[in-house]
């Protein structure tokens, strides 16, 4: 195997990789959570995310989880679990993913087979350095209904509607959350610590809910 493209220090792309090899690499890298694989019908990208990517991944995930706690919504958090299907010859690892609307359906399932169960309801993508493979097309093939993409400045909320992902201001899975408010809190990372930031987010959300109910 030889690399045909190295776009940045954090990734390498390999062509003509079989599904069996991809699956073998998934097993080989089980103990290497910093390595992410994206597979699209023979093309394999191996990513080694840098610190800014991992920082925003964790922080945006913390905001999702804080929101579901405050809203008393049950979720199943699956982090960067591999989402793949052999019949599609496609697979990837979201930066974070969650079952929300379908949480009850998979609550007691130890290992979720996407041939038998729906995909996660929400996937988070940190896109500070763009992937060499069209990851959004893989999410579409897998049937993920909502994807959030954050590039370090802009958060785009994408909802699958009528055969395509459409940008919208507000989340479908968590309707109280919109892109503008989430970006405002993510931007605070440069001035305050994460713990204080999440606490401020919780207070804002409680005030928002109280105002909506009044």
Question: What would a concise description of this structure say?
Answer:
With 214 residues, this protein is α+β, with helices and mostly antiparallel strands.
Can you offer a commentary on this structure?
Helix 2 packs parallel to helix 6 (194-213). The chain has a single domain (50-213), classed as tt1808, chain A (Alpha-Beta Complex), CATH 3.90.1570. It has 214 residues and is an alpha+beta fold. It is 33% helix and 24% strand. The chain has six helices and twelve strands. It has helices spanning 19-28, 51-70, 103-106, 135-142, 179-186, 194-213, and strands at residues 5-8, 11-14, 36-40, 43-47, 76-77, 83-85, 90-92, 96-99, 122-126, 146-150, 155-161, 164-168. The strands form two sheets. The protein has a six-stranded antiparallel β-sheet, sandwiched between helices. A six-stranded mixed β-sheet has the order 5-8-9-10-11-12. The longest helix has 20 residues, at 51-70.
């Amino acid at each position: 195997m030889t690399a045909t493209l190295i776009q940045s220090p954090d990734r390498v792309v390999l062509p003509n990789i079989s599904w069996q090899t991809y699956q073998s690499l998934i097993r080989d890298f089980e103990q290497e959570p910093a390595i992410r694989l994206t597979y699209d019908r023979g093309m394999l990208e191996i990513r080694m995310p840098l610190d800014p990517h991992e920082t925003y991944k964790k922080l945006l995930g913390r905001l999702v989880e804080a929101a579901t706690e405050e809203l008393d919504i049950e979720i199943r958090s699956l982090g960067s679990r591999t989402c793949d299907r052999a019949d599609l010859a496609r697979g990837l690892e979201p930066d974070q993913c969650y079952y929300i609307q379908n949480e009850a359906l998979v609550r007691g399932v130890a290992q979720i087979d996407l041939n038998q169960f729906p995909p996660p309801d929400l996937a988070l993508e940190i896109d500070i350095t763009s992937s060499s493979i069209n990851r959004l097309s893989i999410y579409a093939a897998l049937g993920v209904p909502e994807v959030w993409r954050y590039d370090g400045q802009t958060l785009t909320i994408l909802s699958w509607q009528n055969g395509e992902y459409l940008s919208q201001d507000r989340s479908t899975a968590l309707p109280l959350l919109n892109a503008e408010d989430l970006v405002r809190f993510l931007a605070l990372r440069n001035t305050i610590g994460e713990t204080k930031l999440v606490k401020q987010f919780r207070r804002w959300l409680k005030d928002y809910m109280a105002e909506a109910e009044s």
